[in-house]
Design brief:
about 525 residues, alpha+beta, 6-stranded mixed beta barrel, 5-stranded antiparallel sheet, 7 helices
């Protein structure tokens, strides 16, 4: 009876009732904590794998330069440094399962499973384009890392159930930026990623403006690039070729071509020769925008009329007038006043349509313009390579003011009314304030141009830039919009105004993640 009473009293007792409840709940709390630990471990391991994929994709993208073995170099760059055990930069999963478990036989080092290369990538839909078929068109790389399997550790079924394979992938590309250059491109000779080499320096280019049609770009076409420099005012967006290029800043977006009308751009680049047509509101500005070079000699001549008795009028003591083609000079043949193209181009020889061979009549030019020959000018071959370029002659002319003095080419007197019309050479600009080159200011007759791979391209396309080069403008753009020609001479790889290397100054490339 006493035992029965003790049992009843124990059942009714409320002292220390919380302890049994904790004892019963302990199993659930341990399981919840275990699940949280296992989930955190899996999430951390996925982050480690994703970081490894991101870094591998970025490393691989640095090699996508279009050269031979670009894809092999991309794989090697990612694998050698980031996925090789023992490398100082190897990626590891710190929470990897012990060696010997599924997908962990190689320990903590994250292995790279696959590399996929694509020609393009739709950034809007995040969908890849066609697979790359060559090193030249491999523009994007997708790297997938080997999956890892995390086994539950602290749950009540620890070690019996796993997460399944956890993997990660990333997509990267090599993004090109342009800095301090007019948004102008020229199509390189097909597949010539090293253009221009030493043998191409000094050749004349007869660049053809890309027609506004679906016709493919061909070597020698030039076109505008769609570069939206942030510090260019809206009213200058369509006249960028006349801007003073060192003020343009940089853009980091993928650069594309900009098909469309370019009347204003043609006029803008012609301001570098002091040509300002009526009705287009161009004026030389204090920062050098739309200003001429200090020496603008080309095939145009200055025509000026002096009313009354003009016997004392000379090309040196008159100003103003207008610029006309040398063919409009009356009274017989007059030598061209501008720099001639390569002889093979002048003769229209096969294989010399856009790119010349660098052989031009230097002595004929010097005799027609200066009454001398190259043999009489010590040091004219400034770089000592045995070839005298037009740019070297131009620099010789600039060095002494008398070499760019205007000279009379023809004179026409009339008596009713009495007036004199002078036809003068125009080695100096007749309008605008000339921009004089200096260690901080490039010559306005030098334009830095992107050399682009145009193989198989038409219309608007992503511009794959090989490099930036400097061109010496031989004359203004002639011909109507859509059919204009820009004549220039190759100076060589782009340089800064002070003559220093233009590496990472005009064109910069950096790998960026796409996905």
């Amino acid at each position: 009876m006493i035992e029965k009473r003790l049992f009843i009293d124990f059942a009714k007792a409320r002292d220390a009732a919380i302890a049994p409840l904790y004892a019963l709940a302990l199993f659930g709390l341990i399981m919840i904590a275990g699940v949280g630990w296992d989930y955190s471990r899996m999430a951390t391991m996925h982050s480690e794998l994703q970081n490894a994929a991101d870094q591998a994709a970025l490393a691989a993208a640095t090699q996508l330069t279009g050269v031979t073995d670009a894809r092999a170099n991309a794989e090697a760059a990612a694998t050698t440094f980031l996925a090789t055990a023992g490398s100082a930069w190897a990626n590891e999963t710190k929470l990897a399962n012990e060696p010997g478990r599924t997908n962990d036989a190689d320990g903590r080092t994250v292995r790279l499973a696959t590399f996929e290369f694509f020609q393009s990538w739709d950034h809007a839909t995040d969908v890849p384009g066609p697979l790359a078929t060559s090193d030249a068109n491999a523009r994007y790389v997708r790297v997938t890392v080997d999956g890892r399997e995390a086994f539950y550790a602290l749950t009540s079924i620890g070690g019996l159930v796993s997460s399944g394979l956890i993997d990660a992938s990333a997509v990267a590309t090599l993004e090109a930026s342009a800095c301090n250059v007019p948004p102008l491109m020229v199509c390189a000779p097909t597949g010539n990623s090293g253009y221009p080499g030493t043998s191409e320096i000094g050749i004349a280019l007869d660049l053809r403006e890309k027609p506004q049609s679906t016709a493919d770009f061909t070597p020698g076409n030039f076109d505008l690039l769609d570069i939206d420099y942030e510090n260019i005012a809206n009213n200058q967006k369509n006249r960028t070729l006349g801007l003073n290029s060192d003020l343009l800043g940089c853009t980091a977006a993928q650069i594309t071509t900009r098909p469309g009308a370019r009347d204003t751009e043609n006029t803008a680049i012609n301001t570098r020769f002091g040509i300002y047509p009526n009705g287009q509101n161009f004026s030389c500005e204090a920062n050098g925008d739309f200003c001429p070079a200090d020496v603008t000699r080309n095939d145009l001549v200055r025509r000026v009329t002096v009313n009354g008795n003009g016997n004392n009028a000379t090309c040196a003591n008159t100003a103003g007038g207008d610029l006309i083609p040398y063919t409009d000079i009356p009274g017989g043949a007059v030598p061209k006043q501008g720099f001639p193209l390569d002889t093979c181009k002048a003769l229209g020889l096969a294989g010399c349509l856009s790119f010349g061979d660098g052989v031009w009549p230097v002595d004929t030019y010097l005799n027609d313009i200066h009454g001398t020959t190259s043999a009489s000018i010590p040091g004219l071959d400034a770089d000592g390579d045995g070839q005298i370029t037009r740019f070297e002659v131009y620099q010789w002319e600039r060095a002494v003011a008398s070499r760019t003095a205007p000279r009379e080419l023809a004179r026409v007197n009339t008596t009713s009314p009495t007036r004199t019309t002078l036809y003068c050479s125009a080695p100096r600009p007749i309008a605008g304030t000339p921009v004089v080159p200096s260690p901080t200011q490039k010559d306005r007759r030098i334009v830095t141009v992107a050399v682009v791979d145009c193989t198989g391209q038409s219309g608007r396309f992503d511009a794959k830039t090989f490099r930036f080069i400097d061109l010496f403008l031989l004359g203004p753009i002639t011909g109507p919009a859509g059919a204009g020609e820009l004549k220039a001479e190759v100076i060589g790889p782009a340089k800064r105004a002070d003559g220093g290397s233009g590496f990472q100054n005009f064109g910069r490339k950096k790998p960026v993640l796409v996905q």
